[in-house]
Amino acid sequence: MDLINQLRAFRPWNEQEERDCSALLRLLASGEAPYGREDPAHLTASAWVVSPDRTRVLLAYHNLYDSWAWLGGHADGDRDLLAAALREVREESGLEEVRPVSPELYSVEILTVDGHEKRGRYVSSHLHLNVTYLLEADPAAPLRCKPDENSRVAWFALEEAVAASSEPWFRERIYPKLNAKLAGRPPSR
Questions:
Q1: Is 172 within 8 Å of 146 (Cβ atoms)?
Q2: What is the CATH number of the domain that holds 18?
Q3: What is the domain extent for residue 61?
Q4: pTM of full prediction above 0.85
């Protein structure tokens, strides 16, 4: 299913998802889908990687953000964002076997990224037009970091994963939302 149809089928969980999903649909309907990094707002795919019993989540310590965070990355031209999320998880964690819990979108976010240097080059502030997939992997499987992006990869209990992030928006809004959805709890207003 293409991204427009995935977004149309997506049922927003809260106001943030409702507004961000609508904005993404408007952008994609205009025919200006930013699948590459050239645009100041471009598509990314993230993954909330959970254990089969749904009690743990996999995070990487991202060097750029100096924080524990979910795994994922840029579409880089790939129009199959689930494939992009799976690719990024494998690259960032070393996991060989990771699978979607569902091919449907798990969450939608438009995220700000401050200007920064990457590999000695300046990257301007921009937006990540992000879709998140719920993926599953075995916590006993071997992990390895991707030294140019992260310095550690580890499994956390769900609430510990939230506390491990040093990024306020993720710690206060995004990761608790993903955990609440996982537990089937209604959104808090």
A1: no
A2: 3.90.79.10
A3: 3-183
A4: yes
